[in-house]
Design brief:
Elements (H helix, E strand, L loop, with lengths): L3 H9 L1 H22 L9 H6 L1 H15 L8 H14 L5 H17 L5 H31 L8 E10 L4 E8 L13 E6 L8 E6 L9 E6 L11 H9 L5 E4 L16 E6 L3 H13 L6 E7 L8 H10 L3 E7 L4 H5 L5 E2 L4 H7 L6 E5 L2 H14 L6 E4 L9
Parallel strand pairs: 7-8, 7-11, 8-9, 9-10, 11-12
Antiparallel strand pairs: 1-2, 1-6, 2-5, 3-4
Length: 405
Amino acid sequence: MLNQKTIDIIKSTVPVLEVHGTTITKRFYQRMFANHPELLNIFNHANQKQGRQQTALANAVYAAALYIDKLETILPVVKQIGHKHRSLGIKPEHYPIVGENLLGAIKEVLGDAATDEIIEAWAEAYGVIADAFISVEAEMYEQAENQPGGWADFREFVVERKVKESDVITSFYLVPKDGKEIASYEPGQYVSVKMEIPGEENTHIRQYSLSDAPGNPYYRISVKREDAIGDKPAGKVSVYLWEHVNEGDILPLSAPAGDFILDQQDDRPVVLISGGVGLTPMMSMLKTLVKTGSNRPVTFIHAAQNGNVHAMRDSVEELAAQHPQVKAFWCYEKPTEQDRAAQAFHKEGYIDLPWLQSVIADKNASFYFCGPVPFMKTVNRALKEWGVPAQDIHFEFFGPAGTLD
């Protein structure tokens, strides 16, 4: 436990972290990768370039300082990050490296303002926070390895089938190379895929949501091809999977992870809202609800640019036709002429509250949503405006966590 003096010092740094947090975390990553280039095999370089990882870490450090006397408050965040760490292979021995470089970055950015007293207090606090992560992650590693069909670290899977779902999304059906059982998972979870790309100095690890119901002899991931747009570079892993990974090839996978999961104990209606490739965890949730024989009313809402990039539409419409409790609605931002001729969508433009109110029968429901950050901000704002309680609003960021407020 931290003494009161240390707690007071940490709390006194909260305003400073609010202003300088991202500068500190940028410097932290520069220092850490310069001192430990081997860690470039674990971290997502694209998120580094876009600044998302730095911002996510700055937010986490800020929250840790703010709640340093009530760390149980941030336990959900610790668990969320813990899932990601376990799927990446972050181990206890990585924490001292992070601590040393984080303290070095604080000292460097704040200069004389980072007194010995402040640095000592942060060193002590970091030790407590790191221990919390290590113990949460130890449980996760144990659970991943010891569950039926489970394993530690990465296991080789064979691409059994490769299916193009739309102009931008392709599914990969993956079966274990050793032919043994695979671990089950909760609908909404993801796996990490570890890629060795020829000509690349480092390995690249990416998380992809499992897009089918658990209980099959395979895992399915559905990958959006990320092409370069403006100053945003192309996705190295997604483009490589699309262009070079074929049926019969091997992909190393982590055991399933993630805390964005369907609450199957709840018997109220469910609303699943997705934008773009955010539909992958929603497909897993929808397919699980019908596969388990649940009679919960399900409203499935998907927003896409148009019909050409709308993946798995037929699959959802088939489920809706077979199960009267499932209703599906499509929102197209820029419908094609074919979309118009076929009356293939229910709303043109963007999702908004009046339209949601017109297609959702009852707001006393559990809401799950996923998609690009601006899309999620819109949905989150609409649900709050409608008065949906915070405990009924569940969402997942693809990549480092951000904020929707």
